[in-house]
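User: Assemble these into one structure.

Assistant: Restating your components, then the assembled model:
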Amino acid sequence: MKKQTIDSRPAGPKPWYDPRVRSLFFQVVAITLVFWGGWTLVDNTLSNMESRGISTGFGFLEESAGFGIIMHLVPYDATMSYGRTFWVGLTNTLLVSAMGVVAATILGFVLGIARLSSNWLVAKISLAYIEVIRNIPLLLQIFFWYFAVLSNLPSPRQSVDVGGTLFLNNRGLYLPEPLTQDGFGLVWGGVLAAIAAVIGIRLWAKKRQLATGQIFPTFKVGVAILVLVPIISYLVAGRPLEWEIPALKGFNFGGGITIIPELAALWIALSLYTASFIAEIVRSGILSVSKGQTEASKALGLPHGLTLRLVVIPQAMRVIIPPLTSQYLNLVKNSSLATAIGYPDLVAVFMGTTLNQTGQAVEVVAMTMAVYLTISLLISLFMNIYNRAVAIKER
Amino acid sequence: MGNPMTEQTQTSETQSSPRSEAGQKPDIIRVEGMHKWYGDFHVLKDLNLNVKQGERIVICGPSGSGKSTFIRCLNRLEEHQQGKIIVDEVELTDDVRHIDTVRREVGMVFQHFNLFPHLTVLENCCLSPIWVRKIPRKEAEASAMEYLERVKIPDQANKFPGQLSGGQQQRVAIARALCMKPKIMLFDEPTSALDPEMIKEVLDVMIELAGSGMTMLCVTHEMGFAKTVADRVIFMDGGEIVEEAPPHEFFTNPQEARTQKFLKQILQH
């Protein structure tokens, strides 16, 4: 039987006309070329560096850096190592990226929905914003906020003073810093208890709706619990929080939390710029849901809010998520423009100063690229998981 | 010649109809001197129509005659600018509460089904009963299954609309509207987007529904359906009601020239 099927097959073509043989041949050629190219590069680089006496390897990360960084989320001073500068740069990049993603998403959704508003003025303001902001280069916008707006704020001695606790000047925004005292654990307990209670109420409300059909105002009650319980536990614990208020010392303020103008300018520019793209994505997502869907929902008696929540947004999200992911990736990568205004992000600190001082170009560039690649892949991964959760229900 | 025939048709209609006392029932829909414009374009001109509870009305007419626009005004998917529309004692105005009240009592079936693609058939049917009527999910699902059985597709309940044929989707759409237990059903060309072999399965469901005494307004080109179930046929052209008559009279003895021309065109093949 087996023999018969083999025998009954028509005679194959000459090997060089057989598509399977051809594809195998070209794959072997392609792989050979890639490996040869890669090997040549590595070999060339190594021999060049050897002839110039540049040492390779990651030993330089242990050496003392010897330069200061204006903003660091992890403890840092000039005596610490180059490895430490890497972490300072990385955390600064992550901070501005995370702040940017959150602000751009909120602003983008608001603008996208406003663009579709039936209110003429609201729709046109949103349109004007989107068209202006997304058509001006991002670098220019960063310069605008840094040089034209924030640098023109008054000097520390003439700071804008809000109630004696909050100061704004051309060196940054100075906020009081909360210092937790003994007994603050009770407040944390209160926060956790409130979150647990809200989750519990949500589950209970859902169960009750399934059983009796009654809809519980989960959102309003949840917000009330989240606000009230921590406040009450704070008062019960005897207000275990003290504020360190920034004060003028010499030429600048000391104490409290400082938001440096470099961070503010970069954050504002990145958020505003990316928001204009997100707004267009949101708009196209909502428009992709056909008018028939809204009409069917209205004809069933669902009021406008429920129509949006149960019918339009779930369908729009499937269209919104993939391009939204690209915008998040763009934002993270665009944050490297920080170099231009001196915000100490990974590129400025590590690929800038550290590279200049050590000359370890291959290692430093490879590490920096690996970081951006990792961040981007992680964002893609999470967004794909979320996308699958909202999208798979189609078929 | 026309008069005795009309009487005859009416008596035979009322006798064969399950709701023989339809004549004494109150008007569930009243449309008085209704006008609608799209910008400068006068779409609907001075429409007047009273529909009794349990009445089955077929609206026909050439495309662009305003018949779809007219029934879409009855649940305020379209706004009218002049005149009155009163549905089940509630006048349709800008008042959102009135609109929601009316929409709860009026079911609608669309040409393109408009099922929610992200929800299963059963979820499509239960969505509005759960969120608008606030019925417990178990009850809503049980009731939805009854209606799905009535439209003969209970076995598809857990599939998504994209997995069904056009005829099946339209039957789900009918079941979805019925799940709200509406007093009135509006059909906007329910068979126009279907392949010929699927038209019958949808019409059968509609005929069965008509037999149960539902008040129905149906925009359709299915003249066979009009002859079988309609109490009245309304012919619209150019945004006006040109003629209205019981089906027998409408098809055998149309009065207006425009009606005669229309019938000649669609009955030719």
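The radius of gyration of chain B is 19 Å.
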